[in-house]
Amino acid sequence: MPDLAHDLLLLITNLSQHKDKKNIISLFTQGIQSLFPDYSITWQDKPTTDNIVFEVQTRNTLFGYLVVSTGLIIIKEEIGLIQNAVQMVAIIIERIEHEKELERYQSDLEQLIEDKTHHLLVREVRYQNLFNSMIQGVVYQDEEGKITSANPAAERILGLSLDQMQGRTSTDPMWHAIHEDGSPWPGDEHPSMVALLTGEEVKNALMGVFNPVTDDYTWIKIHAVPLFRPGEERPYEVFTTFEDVTLQKKHTEQLSEISTRQEAILSAIPDIITEVDNKKVYTWTNQAGYDFFGQDVIGRSANTYFEGEQDTLNQVKPLFNGAENVIYVESWQRRKDGEKRLLAWWCRVLKNASGEVQGALSTARDITERNMAEEEIQKLNKELDQRVKERTAQLETANAELEAFAYSVSHDLRAPLRGIDGYSRIIMEQYEDLLDEEGKRYLGNIRFSAKKMDRLINDLLHLARVSRADFQATTIDMNALVRSVYDEITTEDDRKTVILRVSGIPPSYGDPVLIRQVWTNLISNSLKYSKPKPNRNIIIDSQTENNEIIYRINDNGVGFNQKYVHKLFGLFQRLHSEAEFEGTGVGLAIVQRIIHRHGGRVWAEGVAGKGATFYFTLPILSS
User: Fold this and answer.
1) Cα 303 vs. chain centroid, distance in angstroms?
2) Of 192, 293, 301, 351, which is most buried with the most CB atoms under 10 A?
3) 435: buried, middle or exposed (CB in 10 Å: 19+, 13-18, 0-12)?
4) Which helix (H) or strand (E) holds 64?
5) CB-CB contact of 139 with 148 (8 Å)
6) pLDDT digits (tens, 9 = 90+) for 410-458
7) What is the spatial distance between Cα 612 and Cα 375, in angstroms, rounded to a whole number?
8) Contact 320, 357 (CB under 8 A)
9) 539 closest CA partner among 616, 614, 620, 608
């Protein structure tokens, strides 16, 4: 304390200049307090003339003021005595200061220890919380490999409690550890044991361990870390972290299986499948692509194999500038053996998440033979079209001539028939008395045959007119037309025995005159073939299917055998004898010809003795 010695010397000098006891006491007190502000001087009640008794006190935060020393000042004229007294006080105070400094140091040390302890406790709590809440399993093992602690995640993943694991090593057979290929995993090769033995970390070891809770193997990925004390080379502990990758492994195996299957499928597909980048360089292809382009196709530009390169590039340009997502291109390509082949390409653009074009995925099929076949077919079609035109013209000419001949013959036959019928009638009337019964029967047969022939000729003429008549299509009120035809062809007696039900027959489009003939023939047939029944029922209705109206007429007449249905619409074909029902076998042929001229269809269904149903189709009005 260099400054203190100087200050004490000044204090002693001042005291030596005063003989008065009161002045000495006052100066001594002021001097000590100025030198040591934390201390105070207390004097005894009445000091003697030569001696001054005092106490030096300091404040303590716990106990208030404490006496730290007591001293005696002997007032003499000799300066040395005063000097010794003052020095004694200084020494006492200096010792006290050192003690106080030591106390402060000890207090700071205790506070530091307290802070460090608190910090360690906080870290311990945090570590324990982290240890318990981790989703990864954590196991600690001592230098012998015995398990000392494990977190809840380890208990859950391994299916064992901490009590069941503690004290056991990785060599314990209870683990039933296996490699990925199913072979046993020796305990001394366990990552934790290896880490203890070598002092090095073991990372990403995949192991299967038997879980008694699930009664199955759980697959874990392990990371073992050895721990060392300062200055020691042998680990004193190892901690192992691991995560359950069972589901991940299963998904990986499934993806691998799918990938293998897809690769097999892609290899088996005969079509070429390729992928190019945005510079049109091949980056992948299936086996068919290698077979066509060669094993060195990857990394080569697609332009290498084009014939007529610029035409193909212009066609695929909208794909690579993002204007189109899918395009179809046919282009000639050079096969690895140099032969030119025509490939049909379907190309789809590949874009990244930002929508930028990254390339294209394409499939191609060799259509060279198909193209040649199509060209041959087109050639044959042209020849066939020409032949059809020629044949059609010939048929049209022949049909026209045949129809003209039939019309002419039919028309010319009517005059002789009328003559035969007329003369037969005259003979019957004027020469009846000269004829016996056999002669009269013969003349009756002649007249009957003549009339039958006349009806047949009329039907043929009618059929010819149907085929030759102009087609005048318009909207037809089918309901009104049906009722008009029915009223026209039935007698009052017919209407007493016939129940006609007409419902749901919408209008259609066609030639009203021709369609009237259709209904006339069909309704006449129903009336004729239901006549043997005491109560005759005729139902006319329709239904709509596939852009056409199906009209239907059903009766409960004699019907027909379904196996002969193919004869119904043939010319002069009859399923009943003329003795049963009169007719020429032309009426249904006329119906078929009219419906075919309208682009429709006609067919029938029947059951012998129970009735028949006839169907025909016409286009819907909006068509």
Assistant:
1) 35
2) 192
3) middle
4) strand 64-74
5) no
6) 566 666 767 777 777 888 778 778 878 888 787 777 877 777 666 666 6
7) 51
8) yes
9) 614
Task: Let me know: does 509 contact 473? Beta carbons within 8 Å.
Answer: yes
- What are the Cα distances from residue 198, in Å, to 144, 169, 297? 13, 17, 49
- The beta strands (E) that lie in 445-531 are given as 474-476, 498-502, 508-510
Q: What is the pLDDT of residues 541-550, one digit of tens each?
A: 999 888 889 9
CB 82 within 8 A of CB 76: yes
Whether the predicted pLDDT of 75 surpasses 50: no
- Side chain identity at 31, as an amino acid letter? G
pLDDT at 466 > cutoff 70: no
Helices (H) and strands (E) in the chain, counts: 15, 21
Site of tokens 């047939």:
525
Q: For 290-343, what is each residue's pLDDT tens digit?
A: 999 999 999 998 888 887 666 777 888 888 888 889 999 888 888 998 888 999
Contact 615/603 with Cβ under 8 angstroms?
yes
Asked if residue 27 lies in contact with residue 15, where contact means CB atoms within 8 angstroms, the answer is yes
Q: Within its chain, how far is the Cα of 222 from the centroid?
A: 35
DSSP 184: B
The end-to-end CA distance of the chain, in Å, is: 125
How far is 73 from 86, CA to CA, in rounded Å? 8
Distance CA 455, CA 587 (A): 11
What pLDDT digit, counting tens, does each position of 376-392 carry? 888 888 888 888 888 87
CB contact at 8 A, 586 and 459: yes
Torsion of CA 520, 521, 524, 529, to 10 degrees: -160
Rounded to the nearest 5°, which phi and psi values hold at 390? Answer: -65, -45
Q: For the range 217-222, what are the long-range contacts, defined as Cβ-Cβ under 8 Å and sequence gap of 24 or more?
A: 217/176, 217/178, 217/246, 218/157, 218/158, 218/159, 218/244, 218/246, 219/244, 219/245, 219/246, 219/249, 220/137, 220/157, 220/244, 220/245, 221/245, 222/191, 222/192
Collapsing DSSP to helix, strand or coil, 276 comes out as: strand
Closest CA to 141 of 123, 166, 111: 166
Question: pLDDT value at position 265?
Answer: 81
Angle between helical axes of 437-468 and 587-597 (0-180°, round to 10): 0
